[in-house]
Design a protein that fits this description.
Layout lengths: L3 E11 L5 E11 L3 E5 L6 H8 L7 E6 L2 E2 L4 H6 L1 E4 L11 H11 L6 H10 L15 H13 L5 E5 L7 H16 L3 E6 L2 H7 L2 E6 L2 E7 H8 L2 E7 L15 E4 L4 E5 L7 H10 L4 E8 L2 H12 L1
Parallel strand pairs: 3-8, 3-9, 6-7, 7-8
Antiparallel strand pairs: 1-2, 1-4, 4-5, 9-10, 11-13, 11-14, 12-13
The chain binds adenosine-5'-triphosphate and magnesium ion.
Length: 307
């Protein structure tokens, strides 16, 4: 098995109207990982996914998937891939079962009722299998899209904004489905606006902005490295300056919120000293909390830095 299952080298995408949507993207994705692409609207997430799925052509660079060059093996590579697209496009007058069976047929795979019924069961759609697609709710339609994407047993699954318009319960259900697929060895690449989604399920995350990958990191490493804890004190509105005793601890003042945030080391050993300094300096506070920096704040800082 190839270590870098999906390998992009200096990949650019220039659309017909000369707009450059991807700029020199270098990326390696490993077999069986859950990889999340995060970025603002128009960053190039869907473009990247569509290029990898063979829906549109890249303009420069090379893409190797499972040791095969995408430009030379499009058909074979496409048959290994399932895509849950961002937009919900479904035939209104087909039944769930026919529609999913049809998707499988498109890949030249023989009919396999057991596989499809199994999928429907996993996706909690088995009681709707004979419904017309127009008779489904939005969340159910998204599940049909997942079933279609999985109908031909792909080894790579792309999910473009799987949580858009999905309630929290279905989102959690979808995470379960994604975990189960990972267990089966499927490589999963998803885009999301919900940073907590990436925080919850991804093994690695990439930040993309203006067509450029600005960071790729193991999620846990990223949260450990940049997601340090903060000790946040809310003071009385009237506070003027930070007492000198507290100055030696790295901090940030937010006058609007009347807070002082102290950046803590991993073992949070400063907490008792800071509390003691508050007491000694007779500085009163309304409350204090320990806050963990989220992937979201790391992401927002990165995007700001890029601007
Ligand atoms: N067919 C096209 N022709 C020209 N430009 C395009 C085309 N498709 C997308 N773009 C442009 O490429 C950029 C990236 O679009 P893309 O759809 O990849 O963004 P995205 O990161 O998926 O955004 P969103 O979060 O809104 O889904 C945008 O500026 C968009 O207008
Ligand atoms: Mg998109």
């Amino acid at each position: 098995m190839f270590k870098n299952y999906i390998q992009l080298k200096q990949v650019s995408k220039i659309y017909k109207n000369k707009f450059t949507a991807l700029k020199n993207v270098d990326l390696n994705i490993q077999k069986g990982e859950i990889f999340a692409l995060l970025g603002p609207n128009g960053a190039g997430k869907s473009t990247l996914i569509n290029v990898l799925c063979g829906l549109t052509y890249h303009s420069k660079g090379s893409i190797i998937i499972n040791g095969m060059n995408l430009s030379e093996n499009r058909k074979k590579i496409k048959s290994m891939i399932g895509l849950v697209p961002q937009e919900l496009h479904l035939e209104a007058f087909e039944t769930v079962l026919d529609n999913i069976n049809y998707s499988r047929g498109l890949w030249g795979k023989h009919k396999d009722d057991n596989h499809i019924l199994d999928l429907l069961k996993k996706l909690n759609l088995d009681d709707k299998k004979n419904n017309l697609l127009m008779q489904l709710s939005g969340g159910m339609k998204r599940r049909v899209l997942i079933a279609k994407a999985l109908s031909h047993n792909p080894t790579i699954l792309f999910l473009d904004e799987p949580s858009a318009g999905v309630d929290i319960e279905l989102r959690k259900e979808m995470w379960e489905i994604i975990y189960a697929l990972k267990k089966e060895g499927v490589t999963i690449i998803l885009t999301t606006h919900y940073i907590e989604e990436a925080e919850e399920i991804a093994d690695r995350v990439a930040f993309i902005n203006n067509g450029k990958i600005i960071l790729v990191e193991d999620k846990k490493v990223l949260l450990n490295k940049l997601g340090n804890n903060k000790l946040v004190f809310t003071l009385r509105k009237s506070f003027q300056k930070v007492p000198s005793l507290l100055n030696k601890y790295p901090h940030r003042i937010n006058r609007k919120k009347s807070t002082i945030e102290f950046f803590l080391s991993k073992d949070k050993s400063e907490v008792s000293d800071i509390l003691l300094s508050f007491k000694k300096s007779k500085t009163q506070y309304l409350e204090f909390n320990i806050e963990k920096r989220s992937l979201e704040s790391i992401f927002v800082d990165y995007i700001k830095k890029e601007k």
